[in-house]
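Help! Submission page says 'invalid entity' but I think these are all valid:
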Amino acid sequence: MANIEPTAMERFINGVLPENPVYRQLLGMCPILAVTGSMATAMTMAGATAFVLIMANLIVSIIRGLLKPHLRILVFTLTIATFVTIADRALQAFLYDLSKELGPYIPLIIVNCLIISRCEICASKQGPHIALMDAFGMSLGFALALASLATVREVLGNGTWFGLTVMPDWWTNWGIMVLPPGAFLGLGLLLGLVEWMQMVRAKKEN
Amino acid sequence: MSDQPQKGGYIKQAWLVLLLALCYGAALAGVQTALGPIIEENKKREINSQVPILVGVDPETTDVEKVEVTGKDDKTKAVYVAKTKDGELLGWVIRASGQGFADRIEILLGLSADLKTITGLYVLDQKETPGLGDKIRSDSERDEEGNIVAMSYRDMYIGKSTGEPITIVKRTPEEGTNQIEAITAATVSSDKVADIVNSAIDNLGDALDAKRTELSAPQANN
């Protein structure tokens, strides 16, 4: 069956909004809920995930001709685990305090479904150039999702953004936003917003 | 796509996996060699900043010295001694680790100068369940004046005696005993930290006593 595979540019743009990993594919929601208490931790997570996604996509795409179908998931997992370990050590060495705040969530990037799904859908089937653009697009989309939720939670729950006070003096912090219930509420509402935006766009196109 | 790997052809099937495992292993070894020392430096810096706090003294007026003691398990460990500028002993900090619920837990334990009371507990490294087991590293809740409103697990260790083991109980502890209340829904993590504390005191208690006598002996002024 003939397949017109997406081009590099299409892969990149898809990753940002139309196929946004969190808001459209509903992947990687666990780390989103956990690390979006502040922008600093959220952006560190975005950076670490981007590093792993890009490297894993690149390596898998380069060796895609050698993959045996019944062992491919094993190869994906090996590659992802290696790069997550490297990212974890690098964070402990150069951003020690942030790495302590993120705790076990950096090693948990290994089980982030987003990365293994991109390996399966794109990197194992298309060339390095396209796989790279796919990884960039998805990383950007993931970072946008993290930033959106972290902004809501930090501004409303702490009055700050990236640690700088942005709310006026009369603002009382909504403590719940930095706690888990606030994460679920924020994510749910943002998901609804993105869904509504898609509905409006679909109506316009019809 | 073949349905069955050919018998005896396992290497033919799996050579890529084996090769990748070797290459990735080498890469990780390289990363560890390069970054290991930097991470150790970070941990050292953290310890040095925590030592005065754990012993309850002002960092500006205390000197922190690292000495070696050999415990009952015949292993030499580094121990931190806090002293005034005149050399008077203020307190001790030992580093201990052990198996927690999820992974290894590394702690710093502060002891009074006479080694009879625990003066503080700090969790250096842990991978316990977030929101439950990781409450072992929480700070106490304080009001605007800085008074404690809700005491955290690790602050409950302050003031306990080293003479008998710490026990974890699932109700309000009795006054004047070495009982500490477990963290709700994190009994195992609470138990494990107490185990680490008890083993460390048991292992190093005698060696520390000897060291204390040695350091308290009259010394020539510099």
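Support: the input was valid. A stray whitespace character was the problem, and the output above is from the cleaned input. Strands of chain A lie at 160-161, 164-165.
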